[in-house]
Amino acid sequence: MVTKVYKITFFLGLITQGVMVAEPTLKKTEKNLSHIKLERESGWVQTIKPQDVNRVLHDVLDDSYRIWDKFFSMNTMGVIAGFLPMYLIAKKGDAPLHRKFYDAENHLNIHQPPTWLKNLKSDPAMAVPFIIYSLSCFTDESSLGAREVQLFLTGLVWAWGTKVVLKKFKADAGLRPWHEEFDRHERSHGGNPSGHTTMVAYLATYTGLVRGPRYGIPCSLYAGLVASLMTVSNHHYISQVVAGGALGVAFGVASYTVFKELKFPENLNAGVATDSQGKVGLMVSYDF
Predict the structure, then answer these.
(1) Structural domain containing residue 184
(2) What is the pTM of this model?
């Protein structure tokens, strides 16, 4: 099957979360059913697959609108409502559980896990699964690979931003538990919801729904570990961890719903490349 490639050239600045491959010289070439070949005059061939080029002009703002639209849908609100009884039950257990890990008389954390285990909830350690999953688009053979990761990162930003805003509200529910490194006379605000739990719950939900148990199970186990460590190390009450989990799951469901509804024409491909004069342009190919 021969593809006629029509090229529209214009200057364009792009900020994308997908993967773009630009080649200096474009030629009309034959296309099989799975990829486009762009050739340099030297004969070296670079393959651009559909997941690298499809829907490159579908920007983050459009994704953001769709994610928020799904966030306030009945489906996602049902997820949050399902966490409400868990939150209320956990709220009653905040103080008794906290007393098992904090000595109020001496202002010391007690019964703490080993340092190496607590380090698994540190920011550098938590970044590892997010980076691994984000880079997985390079090896994904499906036509939606790059869009899958782009939606994941967009939803992640909104989940992070939402928890930052919620932490600004100064209420009793937001008071952190006592901690030996905090003031022993006055508790700190900004504890509700647990931001770390929000992030890992989002990761586990989105990857589990999109990629299945192979990703969802290990990510869920890690999310449970982080949530537990945040509680026993006296950074959050158990209710704050539950709230963070609810927020992360809700954004994970919303982002997945947007991804699930994406439709791409199988015979149309579009991408960004440079022409022989070095100008950035939009390349469109269509199978007739």
Answers:
(1) 60-260
(2) 0.72
